[in-house]
Amino acid sequence: MAWLYLAEDLDEALRAGDVTQVRGAEAKHMGVARMRVGERVQLGNGRGLVVDGELAALERDLAVVNVVGVRRVPEPKPLVTVVQALAKGGRDELAVQVATELGAAAFVPWQAKRSVSRWDQKAEKGRERWAAVAREASKQSLSAWVPEVAPLHTTASVAGLAAHGPLLVLDPLGDVSLRDALGDDPASGGVGLTLVVGPEGGIDESEFAVFEAAGARRVHLGAAVLRTSSAAPAAIAAILALSGSWDSRLRSGTES
User: How far is CA 176 from the centre of its chain?
Assistant: First the structure.
């Protein structure tokens, strides 16, 4: 199986038979991986463009790739945005990592009332750290799409996301299951779907009130009470299973 390396500046006009270059950190990573001339390699721009190629030359910070084929992979459905509360001990980053591997479309960091972790004046650095985690997880999972990471949100701004589609707040005491909340067509119901995951101490009742006033629903994933790091991945896996959307995201698409 070919490695995937991200090169955001990939030329959209590339075709089979062309030659392209990768410079900087990704080329260095090829060297660290001990790639050899002639090995298969996949390049992606993180926005659906995928180049299948063979490594033609590799120097310290420059890789030359012969293009074998080019594919444009549609964004996977259903589209799931994860609102993840800040959590201590790297549990929020673990949630981002695993949810990316499972196909999350975007992440929204949330400063919840009970979040032990506080970004405060380091909000942009925190966002960049999550973005780096999502980027590496996309490479590992051979995903043609890298999730966007939004700026830090307040409870009020999270509630505002309900204007763009269903807002489902994961709550072990919720009165409706995720299956029932998705309805008879989980695939279409998941388009624009936003999942809200609370911190270690749970979501405060005042926050639930704000979300419900915006039209959110409190949903459960069964009898188990999951950690903040595992709730979103579990929910995404359930959505993919219910919608029949387990797919080979990178290996599909339109070739040119």
Answer: 25
Question: How far apart are alpha carbons 150 and 127 in whole angstroms?
Answer: 7
CB distance 228 to 91 below 8 Å: yes
CA dist., res. 62 & res. 255, Å (int)? 26
Per-residue pLDDT of the chain (256 residues; tens, 9 = 90+): 567 999 999 999 999 999 999 999 999 999 888 999 999 999 999 999 999 999 999 998 899 999 999 999 998 888 999 999 999 999 999 999 999 999 999 999 999 999 999 999 999 999 999 999 999 999 999 999 999 999 999 999 999 999 999 999 999 999 899 999 988 655 554 457 999 999 999 999 999 999 999 999 999 998 889 999 999 999 999 998 888 776 544 445 566 6
Long-range contacts (CB closer than 8 Å, 24 or more residues apart) made by 28-31: 28/60, 28/61, 29/5, 30/3, 30/5, 30/55, 30/58, 30/63, 31/58, 31/60
How many angstroms separate the CA atoms of 47 and 44, rounded?
Answer: 8
Among 87, 215, 207, CA closest to 156: 207
What 3-state class would DSSP assign to 253? coil
**Paired tokens of 239:** 């959505």
CA distance 158 to 140: 29
Tokens 């709550």, residue located: 171
**How many other CB atoms are there within 10 angstroms of residue 236's CB atom?**
24
- From start to end of 27-166, where are the E strands? 40-44, 49-58, 62-72, 80-85, 106-110, 148-149
Q: What values do phi and psi take at 179, rounded to 5?
A: -55, -50
